[in-house]
Amino acid sequence: MNNEKLNDESNFNSENRLTNKPSHAFIAVSWMTLITGMTAYLIGLFNAEMMLNEKGYYFTILLFGLFSVVSVQKSVRDRLEGVAVTDIYYGLSWFATIAAVILLIIGLWNADLSLSEKGFYSMSYILSMFSAIAVQKNTRDSQISS
Predict the structure, then answer these.
(1) How far apart are the first and last CA of the chain?
(2) Count of C-beta atoms within a 10 Å radius of residue 29
(3) Rounded Cα gap, residues 98 and 114, in angstroms
């Protein structure tokens, strides 16, 4: 019975991959939110009155966070589809994502910024991270469906 259930689930997953291609509207909105979040964060960073090394810190955290969430999304998706992903890579992906968020929190906690600026950076960062996951998912779904 377990083998039958597993076979039914794998057939279901392969059928879903073919029929669940993301719509053009969802793809466009995902890209727009990613660009909006990143642009807002970077414009805020460019206009911030902080030292260049602080700006570099926040810029690096943005890049690190975006890469790590794409890595988590890929690892999770690979595991769901039966593609081999080592536990070390899977764990490191999650660790990097959590570390990126914690580093942003620590940086903002210690920064000499107003609460509205701290909120702005937090929201644009989270928007960018979530959008990067959606863009990665849409890219992968579009390639599988083609």
Answers:
(1) 33
(2) 14
(3) 24
CA atoms within 13 A of residue 70's CA, in its CB half-sphere: 15
pTM over 0.70: yes
Whether 27 contacts 142, CB under 8 Å: yes
Local structure of residue 82 (DSSP, 8 states): T
Q: Work out the average pLDDT over 127-140.
A: 93
Question: CA angle 80-86-89, nearest 5°?
Answer: 100
Burial class (CB in 10 A: 0-12, 13-18, 19+), 9: exposed
Task: Write the DSSP symbol of residue 22.
Answer: P
Q: Are 108 and 44 in contact (CB under 8 A)?
A: no
For 70-87, the pLDDT digits (tens) are 999 999 999 988 889 999
pLDDT tens-digit readout, 27-48: 999 999 999 999 999 999 999 9
